[in-house]
Specification:
The complex is a heterotrimer of chains A (558), B (256) and C (319). Chain B is α/β, with parallel strands linked by helices and 256 residues long. Helix content of chain B is 28%, strand content 30%. Chain C has two domains: 178 residues, Rossmann fold (3-Layer(aba) Sandwich), CATH 3.40.50; 118 residues, TPP-binding domain (Rossmann fold), CATH 3.40.50.1220. In chain C, helix 3 crosses helix 4 and helix 5 runs parallel beside helix 8. The chains are: A alpha+beta (558), B alpha/beta (256), C alpha/beta (319). Chains B and C meet through helix 3, helix 4, strand 7, strand 8 and strand 9 of B and helix 3, helix 4, strand 7, strand 9 and strand 10 of C.
Chain lengths: 558, 256, 319
Amino acid sequence: MRPAEFAPPFDAREYVAGPTDAPEERIDVGVLIVGAGPAGLACAIRLGQLLEESPETAARLGEVPVAVLEKGKAVGAHSLSGAVVNPRALRRLFGDRARIEEMPFYGPVEQESVYFLTPRSALRIPTPPTMKNDGNYVASLSELTRWLAGKAEEGGAYILPETAAEKLLVDGGRVVGIRSGDKGRGKDGEALPNFEPGSDVTAKLTVLSEGTQGHLTGVALDRFGLSGENPQVWALGVKEIWKVAKPLDRVIHTMGWPLRGGRRYREFGGSFIYPMGDDMVTLGMVVGLDYRDAELSVHDLLQELKTHKVVRRILEGGERIGWGAKTIPEGGFVAVPRRMHAPGLLITGDGAGLVNVPALKGIHYAIESGRLAAETAFAALQRGRTAWTPGALAGYDEAIRDTFIWDDLKRVRNMRQAFGKGFWIGGAMAGAMTASFGKFPPGNAKTEPDADHELISTARASKYPMPDGKLTFDKLSSVFLSGNKTRDDAPNHIKIRTDVPREVALMWERMCPAQVYEAKEEGVEVTPSNCVQCGAITAKGGRLTPPEGGAGPEYKLT
Amino acid sequence: MKIAVCVKHVPEQARKIDPGTKRLDRSGEGAINPFDVHAVEEALRIKEKQGGEVLIVTMGPTGAQDSVRKALAMGADEALMITDDAAAGSDLVATTNALAAALEKEGADLIMFGQQAGDSDGAVLWAAVADRLRLPVISQVAELEVSDGKARGKRQTEFGYDVIEAPTPAVLAVSDAINEPRYPSLKGIMGARSKPQRTVSLSELGVEGDGMGEAGSKTTVEALSDPPPRGDTVKIEDDGSAAATIVDFIAERKLI
Amino acid sequence: MATLVFLEHHENELLKPSLGVLSKAAGLGGEVTGVVLGSRVGDLGAQAGKFGAGKVLVVDKPELQAPLPQPRVDALASIVRDRGFDTVLFAASVLSADVAAGLSARLQAGLNWDLTDLVQQDGGLVGKRPALGDSVMVDVGWTSEPRLALIRAGSFDPKETGGEAEVEQVDAQFEDFSTKATMVEQAHAESEGPSIEDADIIVAGGRGLGAAENFKLVEELAQALGGAVAATRAVVDSGWYPYATQVGQTGKTVSPKLYIACGISGAIQHKVGMQGSGIIVAINKDPNAPIFEYSDLGVVGDLNEIVPKLTELVRSRKS
């Protein structure tokens, strides 16, 4: 049985429409950016710089030259990553306008170790070249985006949180903006007393920076036929932040236990443990969603990981202060859309799959792509030009191909897929790839949709630790810690077939880190208010759409 | 009709008390006190029915801008912020004096508050402000009627519902049962920025110095400790007598 | 120490929380004076002597007939000033909170509220109060006199010490603004059960009830105990009970004296809505349910058997 057999009731075309508000009711902006993550904010910051030097262009963009929409309660509320950030793109973005010392980093990476874990031991292995982190900085992406937002606002951008972009506004084949989601609907979609309809936000150019599993990104890829031959695939990362008694002196990555290396399991991933200053540590488990065991639960694997003596020692005397989950696009080079633009539209960052999986890096690509999107936008909106003119935005794709993003992704393009063949073979192939700078093996491996893999059932769940409330925790208390206070009477934002066989229902129950799905005697029950919008469901047979703006987690330190 | 609504910016998930200062750690992100949103909503409804303007008044650090913007986005017309570093850590008396001094100059017909501060500060501000301004006060209002020159509020007490009437100008504190606040429209959110926002310092209000801020506070916070443990929890398995055990347990504690 | 205790009354009876505070004040030492403010209060003042008041001041004026705060502030302000009380205590209520706050502004005196205890410590008076959703205790004090305090209702039990108090009638003058608010309709005891926010006893039902019909068990127990019915998120989501009764992170926060949880697992989303309850009794058939970690009495068993029996026993005990 494959989850793909139970396709969700979702039609991307329902999310494409022309503007329906009366013209005077529409909100008109110059450049509209969807998503206040690193890509979107970098775009806003660069535009602010360019517009400052070009008041005539700014004037042409109207009263609101740059607007950034964010579906989370505040900037950073939905931002989550490890993270160890390569400052390269930030330096290019700010030049001498801001120094690394001003940015909210937790210090440069001083030491790093990679371990292969077994249940009772940790074998140090040499750090693979792709994973070396010299010159990089540990950061909380949530904090970094808040800092970036401050810079964007200083540069004149309007940032509008609690606003979900629900539909892509397309008029005569051109993207002319987005329609924001309604607020104040009840469980069955009925209008509640404080119902507030969404608005048409029209713009001369729309930039999608929605991150992983971006809703309108998926809609646009479909509407404009932008996808390449290879479908995107994802991994699910679940992480925690801890206050610790002893400082951690190094950045740690692990492979092996608790994941199983055999080919039949397809469990690709590992863990990260990063120091955040002297008194905090963040740790997470990342697993490819092409795994086959219906009993696999990334959240519980993280809990299991913490019971390893090496990890236990790091957390001893500490206290869990944060938790979150999010998917990461893992297809790499071969899954990047064949085109990242359409008339009036640019796609940046994780939404375009710009993530270097073996190096675990995507933030600096997001920032660089946002910067390039701003430059393309600025050029396309000069006097006498529009973003809808054929070829106006082609420069964006060219620019991306010319930067380090493309070189990096190309070099590691087959690495993830190699691991699909199992850890040991994958490891050997990865070594060969690195040594040959990506020339070996020739050609490009393919990707298969995560939901296409046949499910198996092992007794994996019996090994998950019982939550003790001190070291290990259950999902519900974790959802609470994410700050999620989504109202219970909101409509269900997850498109999913509920009449599925038990095996699929159980797989979803385990998969979801937020306990949204519960297998019943017949079918599956969905509690959408638990959802932290990680996006895993979209990879495994359902479809996540944005709920009411402001709903979902309120991450602070992730 | 001019309605002033006093709002407070409170820490979002105030989960920590700063062990150094022993005050609420307000360094995190904050938001408008959810109870104050009901007051803003009620003021907007009155304005929509009878015309007039809604002024948002707040005292707090510059982070309070976000709370003010939210109220403006909902439809309030202007904001007055008492922003002064010297005000940080002010107690009830100092906050009352500052707010009253600011409100005195505004000549509002109604001065509204939300009934409870989520961070348990200022939980009784309205009655203190009313006394300072020498105005009648109605608190816990769950249903409000405002007509020519008077306000009538229905409120729930321990004994049931009272209906109290007062001539305007008056101070009102509304409970969260009074209404379901509206979501600001996107247009409202964008328009908030350009609405008039004045700031005023403590000295401009004539209340600087004695009594203000942490140093002038008439109350102190001495120490923090863990709450008394719940006591030994008793856990039993029902062997048919559990019901009787429960009754004895609660009777012993004079709960029935 | 010269303490003044605000004695609230309703329908010709001094209220228990006020008497509790009075008893506590007597225990702290010094002179303890009660004050009764109202109209045609008869011999209410004398009753206070039994609970530790050395003296009771009675202000009996028509302006004080309705339970409104502002005339009381006028009366208390002159009493405190004229007689030099250094401490004024209130048992918190809708009325007294407004009185205490108004008095704080009038006298420019420090007010601490939501106290659950008062002690003499290091030569001064220290109040103790919970903060951050009852997850931490804070010690609070005053830097000047008079010291005003609002004490959480029910924190102290009245103790009859059987003394006799000297009763003194006191006059009062009222500011013109104090009598502008008027009582149009005054509250009287409700015929229906209390709302969950006000209830002293709450019986709550969760998923473990199994079906909507089984809420009858919860309702009957609540009725027998004179309490209110509450529900968990799961139950409300399933449509078994209305959202107005939902207790928890996305529902209401309650702190009754007694909370009986039937078939509730007690995940943190629910816990934060009721962890301030006085006594928590939990009935659940799953011995690992999280609620057993923070309940005072946990019963592992079948609620379908236990709850009806409990209701019967409560009824017979009451009659």
